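Quick note —
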Amino acid sequence: MGRDRRRRPIQGPNGLVNSAAKRKGSTCRQDDNSQSDKKLRYSGPSLPEDIWHHIHSLMRLRDAARVACVSRSFRYSWRCYPNLTITRETLGLKGGKYGRPFKKSCGLARKTDHILKNHSGRGVKVLKLQIHDFPMFSTSYDLDRWLHIAIKPGIEELYLWLELHSPDAAVYNFPCRLLLDGSGKSIRHLNLSNCAFRPTAGLCSLISLTNLDLCDVRITGDELGYLLASSVALEKLRLVYCHELFFLEIPTLLQQLRCLIIDHCENLKVIDSKAPNLYSFLYLGDLVRLSLGDSLRVFEIYASGSDFIYYACENLPGMLPNLEALDICSSFMGNTPVIPDKLLHLQQLRIRYFTPDYDYFSLVSFLDAFPSLETFVLYVSHAHLAEVRDIYLRWRMYSFNYMHFLFTIIIGINFYPM
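Predicted structure written out below.
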């Protein structure tokens, strides 16, 4: 009787038995569960292959590598992943040269080798390769092999940053042959550091190159000339610590060159630019013989051991008649001479880092050469602040023409550009 009571069907409010509805409800719940299971098992929407590649390309390197381990679509697109930025930070190897540097460098070389071995080399747009403690954990053979995988026709940006294990370590010779067969024609940005770069006539054809940055690179003036002769689209040239340069000549065919930066190339004696549209020039180092053309508008110079104020007074009006902004930093200053000619278009003037005994009153006559001056910034130390204020009052009394420009005093003399 107890079993019969348990089996007795349940009646609804109208007296009808609803056991069938109960069974139907359970069936619906099973259908819902089966559909949710199908959703969990479904790998994703049916999208074209190029869409998957594009989604994958937007991920950071570590994230792209992780999803390639769990998705067949991403695993295939990993072999043509376009942005290979391989540094300690992107691979998650935190820390600098202290702590456990050998383990870090060894891990970086091992992971770099693993990444590039599993990449087909197709579709690479950007290669940024930072190698620490070269050649302790990676040899020239390793670098040649890695670059050979990634440098293919279609690559647009190439960055190779090497940190030498010791000052006496062997210098890596960049394989210029990799830029042949169309591989160099698509490169727009080329950035090399701590290596030797020896282009020859006809070896490099970088017709799309717009930005060239060489830092601590062994290259002669003739070799750089071969490179520039084929870089007709170049817009920016930066040379830092290139000590094999003695003479820098920029040809007329560089019609697009707008910015030139020369930073402590110790043996450089002459800079001769015939680029017709050069707009700005930044120079750091000892004073050299300059020929920059009439197109220059912005001139920044940080001369470590020369009296550039005197040089500017004697040469700039005739050499750069259309100059609009002048920034001078020098550790040695004599008394400022009177400028025989005028810079009629100069609107901004910055002067910084004088010697403590500099005669600031000699700058009064200096401003006569700049009738269009709008902004004058003078960097001084605390000890000379009162003296410079007195100079400003004298300028206001000296000529009413000085009332129209902005005179700014910045305290502190130890200022260099980043």
